[in-house]
Predict the structure.
Amino acid sequence: MNCIDFVKQHSDEKSCIQHFRRIKEEKGIVCARCGHTSHYWNKAHKSHDCKKCGYRTTLRSGTVMESSKLPYQYWLYTIYLMSMTKKGISAAEVQRQLGHKRYEPIWTMMHKIRAIMGLRDDKYEMDGVVELDNAFFKTHNDESSDEPTKRGRGSQEQSSVLVMAKVDPKPGRPRKHKKPSAFRYVKMIVIPNSSSSTMNDTLSTYAKPEVVIKSDGWRGFNKIKKVSAKHIKKIVPPKEASKALPWVHTMISNAKRNLLGINHHTKDEYLQNYLNEFCYKTNRRYFGVNLFDRLLVAAVEDTWYGKLRYNYG
Ligand SMILES: [Zn+2]
């Protein structure tokens, strides 16, 4: 869907409500009280009322919009803008385009959408051959913001991120100037520290035990064999690190560039959300215009409320 079609089809709040209603009905509504599956559409309350017991399921309940007061049109447009902009879009820009007075509700809405992206990607476990690296992202935190010695707001720090890039090795002899493998999926998980037990816990959460790990032999990965089928260490001088693990390095530099494009100061507690967005879009890079519909379905389908591990303010 291009932006002209999109605007045509979602020109007012009513058409946006219809769109969300259709997605919910396609998925099927189950009464939380009696388990019945047929419902009346209650126009006045924008809810599905159970035909058996009358229990009311609002359009927002169990979706990313639960407890939000923002119009449905805002949600639809923001999901559209976030899925259709390759490099991402800032909350200030979305706020400007929606013409909303306050920044915070828009910012919160976008972080909730990023959380949904993370939740979707969590459903896929890494397997096959995975290039593994520990990256550091520049972030800020608020804790030491009163310290006069630090410039600007908050102190600058490095957030540790475990990066996994699933690759398919190309058969035959490696060709000059070409990467020896094809890139498939990426996962980036913010971790509290760089100890080997954290590395192992994180990897075993997001990868299957039969995974084959390629790393640069860094000491934090010393025990990675315990949670994988095989650990291939490619020990090279730091200058050649990108040759040994080409895709994981490409992904790290792309993510850093992407983050800088959206906002200059990423707070440590929101870093995971931004990484979710980067990974979600990278993993669906061939979806094209379908990305919007897919994200919309995820936002309506995933009964995420209360079990989100991501921050959104
Ligand atoms: Zn019922």
